[in-house]
Write a structure and sequence with these properties.
The protein is mainly β. Helix content is 12%, strand content 40%. It binds zinc ion. The site of zinc ion has 5 residues, from loops.
């Protein structure tokens, strides 16, 4: 509520010059905000320039652990500047305790080079992110599975076999082996990875302007690198490859390196 209130105040105080900007989404930890309007020439969040596509769409997001003050400056063709202030309050996340095969918590030495090689492949694939300026996501988002059964939410602090481990940077959907996995919005296949130690078979999609989604643990991959996909297209099948406790889909979303709650996309109303 506090954020909405602030936006209102700021908008109001400069309404004499107001240009039309529409915002979708919420400024919160793990949140995504999409803006659009007429005659926008540039936009910057805390002095980092955002990409604006030909339809004047731009997007920005807030990491899982984001907090503090963020300033969005939007510049229009007539040289007017509109500023929006967001105050983000740090969010606390719950713990989740899981039991996994020991090799997935403390991988044996002989797997080290494989894990490093896979991490490098992922890193070099991610170097492509940000080059697509078009807002491929402008048609909106759909769930990646036909029957939605959320098994694990975004941001949980994981305790694996009693040891504090990495954060759960995604959303887990329950499913059966072979269920369809769909692209949450239009995109380009950045990498389709086969049999990675942690990810299993997976697909990383680039949705433009730094927004990505990744789909892990597939039993089958149905797309190829650089292939264009449309919202709702089947890109793979649910499985339990990699570090998984039973068949499910792990969906991860990022804006560049910021960890985004996938649910914040499904809540967007265009
Ligand atoms: Zn997961």
């Amino acid at each position: 509520m506090r954020i909405v209130f602030l936006l209102f105040i700021i908008n109001f105080s400069i309404s004499i010059y107001a240009q039309e900007i529409k915002f979708f989404g919420e400024a919160k930890p793990g949140g995504i905000v999409i803006g659009t309007g007429e005659k926008i020439v540039s936009a910057a969040l805390n002095n980092t320039n955002l990409q604006i596509d030909k339809n004047s769409f731009f997007l920005f997001g807030f990491d899982r652990d984001a907090s503090g003050k963020y300033l969005l400056k939007v510049k229009f063709k007539n040289k007017k500047i509109q500023t929006f202030e967001y105050i983000i309050e740090k969010k606390d996340y719950e713990e989740q305790r899981l039991r996994l095969a020991n090799k997935y918590v403390t991988p044996p030495k002989k797997l080290k080079s494989r894990i490093q090689r896979e991490a490098l492949l992922m890193k070099s694939a991610r170097l492509k992110i940000g080059k697509v300026k078009d807002a491929l996501f402008m048609e909106g988002f759909v769930y990646p599975v036909d029957s939605v059964d959320i098994r694990s939410t975004f941001g949980l602090q994981r305790i694996l076999n009693g040891k504090p481990s990495n954060v759960h940077n995604g959303l887990d959907f329950g499913g059966s082996e072979g269920d369809s996995i769909r692209a949450i919005t239009d995109g380009i296949v950045c990498i389709a990875g086969k049999n990675f130690f942690y990810n299993g078979n997976f697909v990383l999609l680039d949705h433009g302007q730094g927004l990505t989604s990744v789909y892990l643990h597939m039993s089958k991959i149905m797309v190829k690198d650089n292939q264009k996909v449309k919202k709702g297209d089947v890109i793979g099948l649910v499985g339990e490859t990699g570090r998984a406790t039973g068949p499910h889909l792990h969906l991860g979303v990022q804006w560049y390196k910021k960890r985004i709650d996938p649910m914040s996309l499904f809540e967007l109303k265009f």
